[in-house]
Amino acid sequence: MTFSFTSYVRLRGMSDLKRSRSSQVFAGVLVNSIYEMRNYPIVLINTVLSPLSFLLVITFVSRGSLIGDAILGGFIMSMFSSGMALQGDLSHLKNDFKLQDMIVSSPTSPFTYTLGMALSELIYSSPALLILAVLAAIFIQPSLFQVGELVSVLLLMFMMSTALGFMLSTISSDIVQSFAFSRVISTLFTTIVPVYYPITYLPLPLQYFAYLSPTTYAAIIAQSATGYLTVQPGMVLLDGGVLVAVTAVVLLIAAKKARWREV
Prior knowledge:
By secondary structure, this protein is mostly helical. The protein has 11 helices and no strands.
């Protein structure tokens, strides 16, 4: 097998491109999470308190019977809120620092830019996720297969909320408006719907409204996977299909409708 100089140049170019993309992703993580965590550690309090406060309330009210459901709800809230938080950060950088204008004129693609910022949100939420992981290991004790199911559901939630947050950030004209959108959507999708408790606790008419939220399907799958909710395997597959379909639709809409370049 011969290896031509042209092949070498192509491979070298691909390697340089990968390193360039890695550097761009790391820059987003560095600017949007590590810098703030290092210089303003107080900002981490909100990311820790939000999911844990609801966990404590549900646990106390249920006298400990719903602690497993509440831990799963904390995971879902953290991942969904992390994606939605991307909206406020991107809007701030776009409108106040005009960073997106510089990104548009650079070789950085929207995907690379969003990936770096999305990873920064995960790192930003890592203290809360770590605490929840410890609580899950103590009270839920999931198997490796159950962990795989939970991680898959949480990644879908994060992808969906990240796409939604990116799309809203490109059409938002003010940071105050962005924070309002983010808080309203996070509240509707993570606290009002049955995420911290089983859907069976809701009266039947309200259950139909709960199914309008994708986080309801994520909670049902997570609770079923860990044995906190009895659901037929066929229904779990259906819920998973709905969750994947909704995530794909949101990603497609974000890719088509987000205004990356000002016109």
